[in-house]
Amino acid sequence: MKNSRKQFIQQAGASALALCVSGALPGRLLAARPKRTEDPLKIGVAAWSFTKFKLDASLDMMSRLDIKYLSIKDFHLPLDSTPEQIAGFFEKLAAKGVTGYGVGPIYMKSEADVDRAFDYTKRVGVKLLVGVPEHELLGYVEKKVKEYGFHYAIHNHGLTDKRYPSVESIYEKVKDLDARIGICHDIGYSIQMGFDPAALTLKYGHRIYEMHVKDMMKSPSGEWLDCEIGRGAIDFAALVRALRKTKYQGVCSIENETHNLDPLPSIAESAGYFKATVKLA
Fold first, then answer.
1. Which domains does the chain have, with CATH numbers?
2. Residue 228 has pLDDT above 80, yes or no
3. Hey, which residues does 46 pair with through a beta bridge?
């Protein structure tokens, strides 16, 4: 059963207190303790959260939140970027200790669009391309995946997207294609459609290569609204357990879509809750 927010905060507080107490241990005891290894569940930010901000301001927010992974959107690094622009982009990321790990989503309506997206991904120097291709292009996408060796993750966008509304609709289209073609799971759209993101992760985790993490709540009128992680309907403890069970290797990228003009408080709350869940679940 999902813990109440109050219970979770109490647990997180106790965990934080334990960490503070451990900081007071004598140096010889601390030296004897094994070094903490990085959790395999990596936490990032989907660049769409910063749609109203230039790169420098976006990276400043990430630095304040100690988030080290960024999914790259073309409003920060255009598809026609020169080698010099790409180098400058990554110099700014490196200065903030941020890794740009993938690009997209990129919509593809023609083979020329597919060619352009794969060429861009190669020039950027990442191995993950999140895309939304027309169904008739999937065979050509598979050809390019075999040529370039990238992972290609198709983004679900809910009922308003007739091509790929759900994780299942993506899987049914790609299950017989090259295994590097899979899913970018936006868990907000899944809960909107009545699906349990943890259950979907357990069922399709072998083909989930990217995850956009957010929470959703219902308004009094029944409309689903984007909200901070932990305030809505998603059971994040169950999701984290599912990610661990399926040995998820991608990034859990927090995505804020509501507070575009001032995303920092919302992302900070979401990141804090999700990081605590990763530690406690």
1. 38-280 (3.20.20.150)
2. yes
3. 71
